[in-house]
Fold:
Amino acid sequence: MDIKLHESWESRLSDEFEKDYFQKLIAFVKTEYASNTCYPLERDVFAAFEHCAFENVKVVIIGQDPYHGEGQANGLCFSVADGIGHPPSLTNIFKEIKQDLGKEIPVSGNLERWAKQGVLLLNATLTVRAHEAGSHQKQGWEKFTNAVIKKISEEKENVVFLLWGGYAKKKGAKIDVNKHCVLSSGHPSPLSANRGYWFGNKHFSKTNAFLNSNKMTTIDW
Structure:
C-alpha cells in the first residue's frame, strides 16, 4: 500500500510509520484489500492528510469507520464521492448547518471543500471491509489516529475539535483543552439525532465564532 500524505504530515508522522504496530497494521490492510472488497479505494486511505496540510489545520472532525457501501467512502469522514446519495449522518449534518447558518443543503456530499479550508476529516479507523462495519477496528488504526490527534494538540494551538458521539469523545482524551476549543454533542446518526442529541448543537456557528475571535479565517460550511 502506497502511504501518500502531504509532506507536512510525512515529516511529523514518519517515526510512527516505523513502529512495529504500524508495520503489522499495513500488512493486515494489504492482505484485506487483496482478499476482500474494502473501502475506501487504496489511493484514498490517507486522503484526509492529502487534502489538509498540517499547517492549515484549524478544525478537526473525528469520525469512526469509513462508509462500507459501494462507492461511498472517499477517505474523508462523513464525506461521500460526488454523485453518491447522502448517507443519513451526512444528511443530518447538512440539516444542522441549514438550521444553524441558513445555508441550503448542497447537491454534493463531497466534503473536500471543507478539507481545503483547513478541516481535517479524520476517521478513527481508516479502512473497512465492504458491508461489515467495524471490521478493521482494533488492528492499529486507532493507535495511529490517536498519535495524529496528540501531534495536533501538542504542536498547534486554537484548533477546534468537533467530537460527535461517544466514540469521538473518547478520542478527545488526547486533546489539551487549555490550548484548544473542544465542542461535543451526540452523533449525527438518526438514532442519536432523533433522540435530541444532535440537532441544535450549533457547532458550525460556534466554530466560526471561535476562529473569528482568534483572527482566523472562518469556514464556509
Summary: The beta strands are 38-39, 59-63, 119-123, 128-129, 160-164, 181-185. The CA atoms of residues 51 and 112 lie 7 Å apart.
